[in-house]
Each structure stands twice: as structure tokens, then as C-alpha cells.
Amino acid sequence: MRKLTLDFEQSQRFRAQTISDSVQWVYGNLIVGDMAEFGVGYGTSMSAIANSIRYCEADPKYPRLHGGTTRKIIHGFDSFEGLPESRLLGDIDSPMV
Fold this sequence. Notes:
mainly alpha
């Protein structure tokens, strides 16, 4: 199996495209509600989300909810300290925590 390796710039472009695709999916499927990012850091992902929202708001191909708007608010959360160590057995064994 060939290993995929990306340099930093390629990685950032891939992340931005993935975020853009995700936001477009939310708009295309009329998902109601705001958006949140946990672990804002430098704000790079949050900026990509905001740019994608602006794109979707301006593009008439995306369906509109009742009242003609799909406007979303982005909420960013960051502890500025990282997350505490996991103590629950289920979390300790999970690669996702």
C-alpha cells in the first residue's frame, strides 16, 4: 500500500477543501442551526468555515430556508490550555479522545 505524504502547504489546502466541502454539504442539505469549532487555536479552520459560509450565502444554487435565509453563526471555543487527561477507561482506550 502506497503511503500518502503531504507537505505543510498541501495539507493546509486539503484541510481547507475538506472544510469547504463540509460547509457546502450543510447548506445543500438545509441543515438548520449554527456551527461551532472546539479548539480554535490560530483560527485557520474558523477562517475557512467563514469563507465557505460567505460563498454559500452568495451562491443562488443553495436552497433557502423559510424566509429566504440560511445565515449561520460560527461559535469558537478554546480553553487555551488544551484538554485535561482522560480518566475514564472507555476514553483512555479510544484513539479518538
